[in-house]
Structures are given as structure tokens and as C-alpha cells.
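User: Working on a comparison across species. This one is Phosphatase from Streptomyces hyaluromycini. Can you predict its structure so I can line it up against the others?
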Amino acid sequence: MPIPGTPSRAELVEHLVKTRIAGDVATPRENNLLHYRKLANGERNWWLGLELGDRWTDEQDVLAVMAERVGVNDDPEYRYGQDTIDPELTVDGLNRLAARLRKAAEGRQRVLFATGHPGGLLDVHRATAAALRTAGCEIVVIPDGLQTDEGYVMQFADVAVLEHGATLWHTHSGEPMKAILGGLEREGRPQPDLVVADHGWAGYAAQVGLDSVGYADCNDPALFLAESEGTLQVAVPLDDHVLSPRYYDPMTAYLLAEAGLA
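Assistant: Here's the predicted structure for Phosphatase from Streptomyces hyaluromycini:
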């Protein structure tokens, strides 16, 4: 069960490992390597809204970045079995994210929240949006009537999501974020000062030059490559869909405390 209150760094690390948000995660090594290969082969679903060109065509280069920034096993001959996310790197990422949230709060910036993984991260984003609103930020309200080939772009609890068939939809695509930003432009409204998201929502926003931060799993390398190149400001490594979304509550509490938003 989630630990109560706001954890210390050491307590959070222990919690992340116990709940498999980090440490020995559920994603197997073979799945990680398959996704690294697909990205390197130019399969755009794995580019998460980014334009990677021909800079990451060697999957070993992708693996090296993932070992450094996420903590997966760095041995290219290790091809099957358990893989890992270093919980210390997760907390380091949360600290970097907290610094950017603090800046947003101090500047009372316009912030847009979105998730392609609503089954895991919707409430993390919702709680962060609520804290920033209390601090005086404007939480961007998305235009009505937006849609992509996958479904409708909606907003629930201040978080943009993709809706398909009356359900919230898991998506890697950057098209929903493209629809939002285009809709804001058509209405003559300013673009966000900051995008807090994941998957293609974060990647597309970063690609078009917006300040973008987000969460990513060990089998979704694109955001970590973008962070390494300076396109994305922060990528926090974690398992983005664990047994219960309540397991993320201590992590969110730690993040908001570090940002001065608790």
C-alpha cells in the first residue's frame, strides 16, 4: 500500500522498488530491446511525436542512453529476462521536474497537462495541475471539438486525453498534442509556457519548441533521447502502468513538496 504523507528521498526510493515503479520492473528485457530496435529502424510510432531524423539509427546507441538515463542493463548481450529502472534516477528526474514546476509557479505560467497513459498517470497529472492552479498558474483549457484519426481529444480533471469508444485511450501519437496547439492558434490564444505530459503529447510539444517535461517507461526511449539532445527539458524514468495508480501517490507528494507546491 502507498505510504502516508510526504516521503523522504530514501523512503520514496524504497517505495518505488516495492511497488515496481522502479527497480525490477514488469517490462521484460526483450520488449525493451524490441522497442529500441523499432525506434532505430525509423518506425514513427516509437518516435513519440519527435523528429529523430537519422541520428539514432543504431540501437546500441539507444541502449547506451537508456542505460545512462534510465538504468536498464547496459550489456548488449543481455537479451532476455528482467530489466530495471534505477530508482535513484527516477528521484533525480523528479527533482529536475520539481525545479521546472517551481519556475512555472513563480512565473504564474500557462501550463498544459496531457497523458497518453490515463490508466496509470492521469491522477499524477491531475494533482500536479491542481497544485499549480492553487499557486496562481493558468491551467490551459483545450479547445472543443478536437479529434485525430484515433479518436477525440478531450480534457478530464484538467488533463488532456484521447477518448475512443467512450473510453480513455492509450496512445503514443503526437497528433493529439498537434490538434490542441493548432486549435489554440486558430482561436487566437497563446501557446502554453509549459507542457507536462508523457508519450507523444510531451514529444510533439518539445519538437515544436515548447518547454516540455514528462514521464517515460524503459520501453519508450524517444523522450530520453530528446532529453539527451536538449529538446525535452525533463524525462522522468518510471513504469507508467503499475498494479494500482494509488502507488504513484507518494511520488506525487514528493514531487509537489520539492516544487514548493505541497
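For your comparison, note: The chain is about 40% helix and 20% strand.

User: Helpful, thanks.
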